[in-house]
Amino acid sequence: MQGIRRIRYLPEGEIRLSAENRAAFRSPESIEEAARRGNILESTCLLCDCATMQLTVEMPDGMRGIIPRAEAGFVPPGLGAGGEVKDIAVITRVGKPVQYKILSIREDGRGERIAVCSRRAAQEECWQNAVSRLVPGDIIPARITHLEPFGAFCDIGCGLVSLLTVDRISVSRISHPADRLRQGERIWAVVSSVLENGRIYLSHRELLGTWEENAAMFSAGQTVSGIIRSVETYGVFVELAPNLAGLAESTDGAIPGHACSVYIKSILPERMKVKLVLIDVGEEAGAAPFRYFIDPDEVTRLTRWRYSPDGCRKVVESVFGEECLAESGMR
Prior knowledge:
The chain contains five helices and 17 strands.
């Protein structure tokens, strides 16, 4: 698979400190050379002139970089908006890294050299050479741009955004993406679907291990830490790992979102169950750390991922490349 990361397109914020990018910003002359080569560069957006919606980007001493409103972004074909990004998407770039190509370098009336830059050109190149070629199952790098109750928006290359819905962040259910992810965080993701209009949706849970891989980290008789995810009339769901939760009997004092300690009574692969006893409830928990069970440098595309153990009556899996991915009711 020739994934997006195989041909050097990365989320904004990922190339600013690279050797190639730093070399380009050593001087006005090195910037001119990068412009001649058509390099995609990255620097911080310093300000937005709200009258013209023109952005100013960081440049070496002796040069000013601008991104005109028309060059502020690219809307992929089929996604509407008349091919123009919204004003809010322009304004919110201030203070953040942006990727762009330099269209021209000129002098103003005072002799100051001005680099006219295009974020749109960088994004269009990324779209044509990488993002538009993605297929379900491709494993790609992403960077969390912002969080909403329904999911996390992710930069999948040069500022092009895709959605990771909350139900596909992990198998263990969470009430909000902030329970698992942070703005600006770099993650790996799986392309779950590509719509006819070019919109791309992501998944994440397939990288966090199967039930057996997660259960293997624990043993009956242990007391371990967890996070209370929900309190039901029939019990308390406790997350032991992002892709593994167990059920403890109902008890007073259990508060969703709080850390806790639990005793593991039994682990039942044939029923995909972990039975717990709630020992103690602590403070409100932060975002739970996660680990990947798939190495994206070795596995670059998934065709099928099965969460449930062999022999388990309940099948939880994702099949990529088909119209519908198998969904689960797992907590």
